Amino acid sequence: MREHLHSSTPIERTHQTPPSLDASPTGDAPEADDPSTTTVAAYLNARLAQVGVTHVFAIPGDYVAEWVATLDDPAQNAGLVRVHPNNEMCATYAADGYARAGTGTVGCVAFTYGVGAINAAQAVGGAMVEDVPLVVVNGSPSAAQFRSQRDQGVAYHHMLDGSHSDERIFTEVTRMTVRIDNPATAPDLIDAALVTCITDSKPVYVELQNGVALMACRAVPDQPLVAAPMPQAAASLQEATDAIMAHLQAAERVVFVAGAELARAGVGDQFATLVAAVDAPYVTSGLGKGLLSERRTDVRFAGTYVGKSSQDNVQAMMEAADCVVALGVKDTDFNYLGIVTPDYNPAAATDLPGPTHIQARDGAVLVGRDLAYWGDVGLGALVESLTAAVEATPLPHAPFPGLATGTPWDLPDPDSFDADAPITWDSFKATLAGDFLAGFSEDDHPVLVCDSGFSFVALLNVPVVDHGYVAQFAWAAIGYGTGATAGVGLAASASSRRTVTVTGDGAFSQTVNALGTVAQLGQPAIYFVMDNRVFAVEQWLIDAEAFCPGAPPPAFTPLTAVPQGAIWDYVKLAEGFGGVGHAVSTNAELRAVLAGLDEVPTNPETGEPTFTLVAVRVPAKDQPDTTAWRTVCA
Question: pLDDT band for position 346 (50/70/90)?
Fold first, then answer.
């Protein structure tokens, strides 16, 4: 009666690594008699280390276990360190944060097929949109298993079907996908994917077939992997430079806008040389904040420009400019570049964007709204060419005026807020900046991680240093900041900098278990959870009039509620994850907690440093000054 059923023996044989290819019983890599060979796993590890990976955020899974096991073997791991996060989404956020916060760093995550990788696809999409170099290693069923599904109808665990669904899905959210199913072609495919990752500053996907990791392949070449951009067309570069120089020479009010692509291309210092040579002020976009230290005195930082969410003095300077040069800035509705306001009306009375608006990004230059365009000019090459041109031919109207009034931040003094009054978004950020962040030097200034929502808009006018601000300002996944903190902390620890994460309670609830990874790594991170018990930014987008004062104010939309906020005890929650917790409601309480944050707590179980979580109770109807423009009250 059971003859028609599959025998367990062929299924086990199909699932497992063939005995002839097994590693030794201890799990060590097989010895190679030929020094010209190594294993696919060792090759991948060596190449990952070469391109800037130091940590691999790996989630357990049998399909990927064979390779991940080599990360714990000093003879095979090329110095890579395995980190065990709590789920695939948090792992990807952490790897993304690591890549953003470091210099020349690349994030890396490792999952198992289907349930692991697809759980991470959303987070990988954010890295794709925001130009983050990230390597996704996905362990997959073997070729034999795919054939068994095709010929016998066996659906192996985690498999949607036999159509290589994971690879097809990741084709949509990465720059390049490769499937490693033959040791002979593995080195070339690995190299191609990793070079693409560091050249384009985009995620790539490496699918490692079950059973291939310990197979022999050719040895790692002596030459390391390096970025390989397309050769620059000299004529196009010169033409674009000349066109921009014509505008700069005629302009009387030049403002530069710096975007995240400058950081991804590694040309932040070259940009600083350019704006110093031009002697013009520069602002950053939301995504570009932290490209350079805002404390530098050799360049003229003039704030962060995000349309109406900018300070009045920054908006006034931008609207008065007769030449705006935007370098490496994405046009997004949150970045607001190319438009004066996020609700841009082409018929509005405004000078932006205008015929003197110049934009260069991702290998292309646009001068004027539709006047001249080159699609083959590299960003780094353009910055260097413009610098040489300005140094050779000084601009007649330089130095160009900056802010007419105020500072690039215009934060009030913390003493201006009533000590016994409830904390507001504005009193919080002013006090955080004035009482805590201002006490650090350039070298040890914390990295500010701002979660998606009111957090990343509110903190745009808080001073930061280079690589000192991390936020998902285009993809804007709520929960990103809490998840990214572990990775940002790993990158920041190289320079002894701490992380300070600001998140809303709704965003925090999405990735709360990422606290466990931070405690596991012994990181002295600081979290501020803005406890207003609503997804405030969602309400702001749906109906901003709900924030109007008066009686009776419009009711918040029910879907924006954070119902667990009424029952969560943030102090105990922090302790449960191995950290220290505080809850504050007044400005005086906030200042008292800030005064004690220099002392790093330790985990009683491990004796290692651990995180501090501060629940900041904010009235639900409160909003930061950077979002108030949208609220039109009767």
Answer: low
